[in-house]
Amino acid sequence: RALRRYVLCEVVSEDPRCRQCIEDRAVGLAVRDAIGRVHGDYGLACCSISFTVKYLNAYTGTVLLRCRKDSYRLLCSALPFVRQLESRAQRYPCILNTLHVGGTIRTCQKFLIQYNRRQLLMLLQNCTNEEERRCIQKSLLSCSIAEEQSQSGDEEDDDGTE
């Protein structure tokens, strides 16, 4: 059984077009490039063995990266050096903000639910009208429902064989 780590990140960019053009291939290439620049060929070889972009949500900018447990520190230390994503011959300046490192996809999902809930609560405090308040409260409710459903579901981790 291969031991892995899952690194949950968010793509932060001032250019609103950036998130619409994100593809897993572009994220994977940008991360590999950063690892190569920071850690050289050795670091790139260590990280590349099991590295993959497991999940990408272009709408929220959420990215889940997978790597071997013994090389996740190399991966995490290179992420701040990702400065742009390239897609369809366009370059979009951005950064990858590491949110969480977990041993399973499930722990990353649970963290993301809590993180989104905290973000929504902050938005709720800054609401300017009742319409915004209702929308955010509805989103908060959907966060908690999704979490309860996932807790009652089967425990399935993606730490199986490759």
UniProtKB/TrEMBL annotation:
<comment type="function">
    <text>Component of ribonuclease P, a protein complex that generates mature tRNA molecules by cleaving their 5'-ends. Also a component of the MRP ribonuclease complex, which cleaves pre-rRNA sequences.</text>
</comment>
<dbReference type="GO" id="GO:0033204">
    <property type="term" value="F:ribonuclease P RNA binding"/>
</dbReference>
<keyword id="KW-0698">rRNA processing</keyword>
<dbReference type="InterPro" id="IPR016819">
    <property type="entry name" value="RNase_P/MRP_POP5"/>
</dbReference>
<dbReference type="InterPro" id="IPR038085">
    <property type="entry name" value="Rnp2-like_sf"/>
</dbReference>
<keyword id="KW-0539">Nucleus</keyword>
<dbReference type="Pfam" id="PF01900">
    <property type="entry name" value="RNase_P_Rpp14"/>
</dbReference>
<dbReference type="InterPro" id="IPR002759">
    <property type="entry name" value="Pop5/Rpp14/Rnp2-like"/>
</dbReference>
<comment type="subunit">
    <text>Component of nuclear RNase P and RNase MRP ribonucleoproteins. RNase P consists of a catalytic RNA moiety and 10 different protein chains; POP1, POP4, POP5, POP7, RPP14, RPP21, RPP25, RPP30, RPP38 and RPP40. Within the RNase P complex, POP1, POP7 and RPP25 form the 'finger' subcomplex, POP5, RPP14, RPP40 and homodimeric RPP30 form the 'palm' subcomplex, and RPP21, POP4 and RPP38 form the 'wrist' subcomplex. All subunits of the RNase P complex interact with the catalytic RNA. Several subunits of RNase P are also part of the RNase MRP complex.</text>
</comment>
<keyword id="KW-0819">tRNA processing</keyword>
<dbReference type="GO" id="GO:0001682">
    <property type="term" value="P:tRNA 5'-leader removal"/>
</dbReference>
<comment type="similarity">
    <text>Belongs to the eukaryotic/archaeal RNase P protein component 2 family.</text>
</comment>
<protein>
    <recommendedName>
        <fullName>Ribonuclease P/MRP protein subunit POP5</fullName>
    </recommendedName>
</protein>
<dbReference type="GO" id="GO:0005730">
    <property type="term" value="C:nucleolus"/>
</dbReference>
<dbReference type="GO" id="GO:0006364">
    <property type="term" value="P:rRNA processing"/>
</dbReference>
<dbReference type="GO" id="GO:0030681">
    <property type="term" value="C:multimeric ribonuclease P complex"/>
</dbReference>
